[in-house]
Amino acid sequence: MAISHRHKINISFSSVGMTDVIFQLLIFFMLTSTLVHPTALKLLLPKGSTQTSAKPQTTVSITADQRYYVEQQPVTLQELESVLREKLGESPETYISLHADKSVPFETVVFVLNIAQANNYKLIIATTPK
């Protein structure tokens, strides 16, 4: 009497685990891409060729219609210095990043420069690469 062996190999592939991983990666990338916003204000920055390695503690933005923002908070020209003092204090080596639209008059940029000089802040003017 012959004994027959039944060795059946199942050739099916279950992709359930792979789709779970793909959906988790998709959700992760969607969440991280929406959380990264250097500035939410749309500004046309002037072009520059040099970059700095200093990390600013805060940003001051001036829009084309001359509205002032400290990070995302709108401020008036008169309260700009007091808001910066509140936020930064008297710490040494304090860097501020200035994001000014390229159509902003130069005198408004100089006004922010004077505030930075009066409080011993170091100002970094943000530009777009050439």
Order of helices and strands: HEEEEHEHEE
Under CATH, the topology of the domain at 47-129 can be stated as Nucleotidyltransferase, domain 5
Uncertain residue ranges? none
How many strand segments?
7
CATH class of the domain at 47-129: Alpha Beta
What is the alpha-carbon Rg in Å?
27 Å
Helix content: 25-40%
- The structure class reads alpha/beta
Describe the structure.
This protein is α/β, with parallel strands linked by helices and 130 residues long. The protein has a domain of 83 residues: Nucleotidyltransferase, domain 5 (2-Layer Sandwich). It is 32% helix and 19% strand. The protein contains three helices and seven strands; from the N terminus they run H-E-E-E-E-H-E-H-E-E. The strands form two sheets. It has a five-stranded mixed sheet, with helices on one face. The chain has a two-stranded parallel ribbon with strand order 1-7. The radius of gyration is 27 Å and the shape is elongated. The model has no long low-confidence stretch (mean pLDDT 80).
Task: Name a few traits of the molecule.
130 residues; alpha/beta; Nucleotidyltransferase, domain 5; five-stranded mixed β-sheet; two-stranded parallel ribbon; 3 helices; 32% helix; 19% strand; elongated
